[in-house]
Amino acid sequence: MRLAALLSATALVIATPVLAQAPDRVAINGIIDQGFNHSEVMNTAAWLTDRIGGRLTNSPQMREAESWTAQQFRDWGLSNVRAEGFEFGRGWSIVRSSARMTAPRSIDLRAIPVAWTPSTDGVISGDVVVAPMTTPADFDKWRGKLAGKIVMITKPDTGSEPTEPAFRRWTDDELAGRTAFVQPAHAEPSLGGLREASFAERLDAFLKEEGAIAWVKMSQRDGGLLHGTGYTYRVGTTPTLPGMELAAEDYRRLARLAKTDASPRLELMSEVRFHDEDVNAYNILADIPGTARGGEYVMAGAHLDSWVASDGAVDNAAGVAVVMEAARILKEMGVRPKRTIRFALWNGEEQGLLGSLAYVDQHLATRAPLNDPELDSLPNGRTWRQRWPVQPRPGHADLVAYFNIDNGSGKIRGINAEGNVAAAPIFEEWLAPFASMGASTVSLRTSGGTDHVYMQSVGIPGYQFIQDPLDYGSRLHHTSIDSYDHIKPEDLRQAAVVLAGLLLTAANSDEPLPRMPLPTQPTPSDPFAY
Amino acid sequence: MRLAALLSATALVIATPVLAQAPDRVAINGIIDQGFNHSEVMNTAAWLTDRIGGRLTNSPQMREAESWTAQQFRDWGLSNVRAEGFEFGRGWSIVRSSARMTAPRSIDLRAIPVAWTPSTDGVISGDVVVAPMTTPADFDKWRGKLAGKIVMITKPDTGSEPTEPAFRRWTDDELAGRTAFVQPAHAEPSLGGLREASFAERLDAFLKEEGAIAWVKMSQRDGGLLHGTGYTYRVGTTPTLPGMELAAEDYRRLARLAKTDASPRLELMSEVRFHDEDVNAYNILADIPGTARGGEYVMAGAHLDSWVASDGAVDNAAGVAVVMEAARILKEMGVRPKRTIRFALWNGEEQGLLGSLAYVDQHLATRAPLNDPELDSLPNGRTWRQRWPVQPRPGHADLVAYFNIDNGSGKIRGINAEGNVAAAPIFEEWLAPFASMGASTVSLRTSGGTDHVYMQSVGIPGYQFIQDPLDYGSRLHHTSIDSYDHIKPEDLRQAAVVLAGLLLTAANSDEPLPRMPLPTQPTPSDPFAY
Question: Which intervals of the chain are annotated as region Disordered (chains A, B) (predicted)?
Fold first, then answer.
């Protein structure tokens, strides 16, 4: 504690390499030359997006992406390129789809099949009924009213008023505000509800039983954007009724007309395929072997899978291209790091960080079973945070730092130290060569929602970069316009340079990054709550 | 001059009714009650958008809108409800359409047929060639390279970075900035090029001659938005080759792939109909008759026609609904104005303000012929501004004020006095009752692009309101999301109240609004230019 406080006190003290080795700035000059003057990052991004397209876990497109990225790593000379499998579920892909309103007038609508729902039987049509349902308690209200209908399951809201710019970069003030420690929210994971089927499965069963012919939901964004996200991918749980997402404008028009005497009718066509040849999904791993520190390694990762409303460009071909470009740069330079540098392209991230979780479970740490046969048979991710204690595996100590990229194509502005006050001053030192590129902020905030989370959950120093937000959250995340156009080349080049530099520094530092204590079951936030 | 300057000097002087009669605030209380507590404006807007949909000039949907609005006026008790025709051209409507990329992979694309292009012969497919052409001089570059191809005629740019909020309202500072006089830009209309066919016609002929099978252009906005605008509507000039607009993201993807070895292929299907039963388009007019001022009248107008990528909601069902609601409010109140109050729903606005031009030409003033048989045979709008002198018709003096609404669904923040320094202080007085609703700015700016322009061009006091911009220009104008969702109910109710109040005040004022001098041919901006 004292030493960490000392380290963070002044830049003068930080410059003295106590725990960490200062970055090799000559090597970083080489990285900058390779990353800015000889970049391949946009070619990589273009292949993943334009050529392969959206990469839903276990879809043919994702299989192609697995092969292509592995081959790229091999072509660039990386070592030990491999695919590590974990059980996922069914593959699914869209062949084509369409939707039309046919009464009171005929127009083409914007629609996408919801992931893992089945095909329609050719073109189907029916009257619509607006029957918003969000919990099983809503079923009673609609029982007996849905036979032969296309059921509109979302309650329509009104249009948005986007009063903030869609595209932005962090200001200095905003970045400065991130350096304050944020006390972790004390959310207590609960086992409640885990024994039940998901609402999506129960809704499917209810609609089937009622004789509905299909369902549609409303896009959660307006502006004509679509997503098509769905989560019923496990073998034996994929739905029986076709479901489609409609553009908010199209959905609301139908809903309004359904409140009049217009009797709107909807025509749907969804042709999709399931792929059951292999229920495993695969993470792609590749190494630059270390020369001096035994099994120790540093790792960078990004998820390769995406949703399929568009080409999964900023979520997350951008991150994959940056990780692969860092590998290419370092390999091209012929670096011989003390520790192994590993590059990981995760699978199944969009369905719950499943690829990185599988890696954690297989290589780093597992967690005790609940000793409840029903709950212990659930997929790992469902109960992970509720199982104590964390049980480190032999490889737990070997992974000395993990860096994740999954926040769009914005350039790197710094790193989230995830509340680790011992690591923060070291990051400040490591990022110093990149300050003039805008990548100097060390935030003490935690960040969630992507593949460093499960590493953090077992005490591995896994970190997520701070990236300029651009229009990632406002209009691209999971949407029908997440294509190559919206990737910013200058930003990606910068990110690859910073990542390559950080990896090399971490691989060669005398000491590994300081760790947080191994997590144990937290006390409840309010011990006297009922 | 002196009197006008005096009027604008102080509010005290303005309050003395010299040229104008102060607004009848008791009547305005009645308008407020009717417009806010008993509004029908959103029902009107919903019928025009949800029920009828996009209303391309001379399409069946526009015919339905002509009938429905006329019947509404009749149902509300307006007088002299009539349709005034003018020669336009062919009607056109979309039945259905689709586009797919089929190589190097298969995906559905977002596309819309370009207005007045013909159907494809079922589903057609071909290799693409990126051949940007903007002038006939570009044809040589592509001659001999287009046979059997689908030609991509737009030069692709890169994605946008929307750093301004899409949705906004005028700030006080912005409104204050509008009160300064703006010297008119001295653009000299030219007769050059009028003898030639339009570029669209020449491009169609070139592509046909080269054996291309279709053409596609890129949407001018990204974000997946489409427009489908096209202007070759005259009998005898509609194109022979199908043309479609692709979403910018889809177009750019094809263009990038065409730069690689991927050989992208495109599949297009466009089923459209032409409607030649009646080449006339019709303005819908309705009156509340005056009681005391002979043929004098005041008029409010909005264009009823729209593009068809969506339902023509903020452009301009919103304006139509406001004009119709003002009519309903005043009729419901049983007003008996001194001057007739006329309500006009224009046609053919999107193709060049053609409906309001026809009204001007038929009722207000015409312009001398050029005495060139070829040029004089062109449609009125092509040569209107180049023909001198303006020749007033007997009705010229009768129209004492025209108010236009065509800037989306934002509430009224004031009015553009169009450089008329004599009218400005009168507007300040007339708008005073609406200051607390935010509608108090009298701008001296001119405004263009809609149906008051041709009235201004012959010296009629035609004015356009200042409306809050909202997201009209940023994402709704002519796009595939211009549907009812994005109309703001509170704004429309306010606009109808302000318009009804202003119409009543103008109809009852002692003196008509001051006019500008009858326009005569301007001197050139630089008399010595070569």
Answer: 511-530
Cα gap A197→A236, rounded to integer Å: 12
In A340-435, beta strands by DSSP E: 340-346, 365-367, 390-392, 399-404, 412-416
Chain A residues close to B471, C-beta within 8 Å? 161-162
Query: Crossing angle of helices A318-333/A25-37, nearest 10°?
Result: 120
Q: Do B50 and A257 touch (CB under 8 A)?
A: yes
Question: How close B203 comes to chain A (CA, Å)?
Answer: 28
**What is the identity of the amino acid at B257?**
L
| Cβ neighbours for B381, distance < 8 A, ≥ 6 positions apart | B352, B353, B354, B357
Instruction: For residue A207, give the 3-state DSSP assignment.
Output: helix
- Backbone phi, psi, residue A528, to 5°: -110, 10
pLDDT above 70 (res A188) = no
* pLDDT higher than 80, residue A410: yes
Quick check: B53 and A107 CB within 8 A? yes
Axis crossing angle, helix A489-508 with helix A424-431, rounded to the nearest 10: 120
Q: Do residues B474 and B166 touch, judged by C-beta distance below 8 A?
A: yes
pLDDT of residue A3 exceeding 50, the answer is no
Helices (H), B240-394: 248-258, 318-333, 354-359, 373-376, 380-383
**Cβ neighbours of A107 in B, within 8 Å:** 53
| Residue of B485, B487, B490, B492 for testing the chain A interface, max A β-carbons within 10 Å | B485
Give the one of A168, A253, A484 whose C-beta lies nearest to B163's C-beta.
A168
Beta strands A214-218; A150-152: pairing state: parallel
Q: Where are the beta strands (DSSP E) in A88-204?
A: 91-103, 107-109, 111-113, 124-130, 150-152
In chain B, which residues have their Cβ closer than 8 Å to the Cβ of A224? 223-225, 480-481
Q: C-alpha B407: how far from its chain's center? A: 8
What domains lie within chain B, and their CATH numbers? 2-88+279-508 (3.40.630.10), 91-159+186-275 (3.50.30.30)
CA of A138 to nearest chain B CA: how many angstroms apart? 26
- Average pLDDT, consecutive stretches of 10 residues, N- to C-terminus, chain B (530 residues): 36 44 94 98 98 98 98 98 98 98 98 98 98 97 98 95 97 93 74 85 97 98 97 94 98 98 98 98 98 97 98 98 98 98 98 97 97 92 92 97 97 96 96 97 91 95 97 98 98 98 97 93 82
B483 to A53: CB separation less than 8 angstroms, yes or no: no
* Residues of A with Cβ-Cβ distance to B166 under 8 angstroms: 162, 166
Query: B513 CB contacts (<8 Å, ≥6 apart)?
Result: B20, B400, B401, B423, B426, B461, B506
**CA–CA separation, A80 vs B223, rounded Å?**
41
Q: How far apart are the first and last CA of chain A?
A: 36
Q: Which residues contact B152 (CB under 8 A, 6 or more apart)?
A: B128, B129, B130, B131, B132, B215, B216, B217, B218, B251, B254, B255, B258
Q: How many distinct helices (H) and strands (E) make up chain B?
A: 16, 18
Reported as type and span, the H/E element at residue A374 is helix A373-376
Which residue, among B280, B504, B71, B409, has the nearest Cα to A159 in the 3D structure?
A: B409
Rounded to a whole number of angstroms, the CA Rg of chain B reads 24
Q: Which two tokens stand for residue A112?
A: 């996408």
Distance, C-alpha B473 to centroid of its chain: 13
Inter-chain contact B105–A471, Cβ cutoff 8 Å?
A: no
Pairing mode of beta strands A412-416, A441-443:
parallel
Phi, psi of A393 (to 5 degrees): -95, 170
Residue B89 backbone zone (phi > 0: left; psi -120 to 50: alpha; other: beta):
left
Q: Is the pLDDT of residue A86 over 60?
A: yes
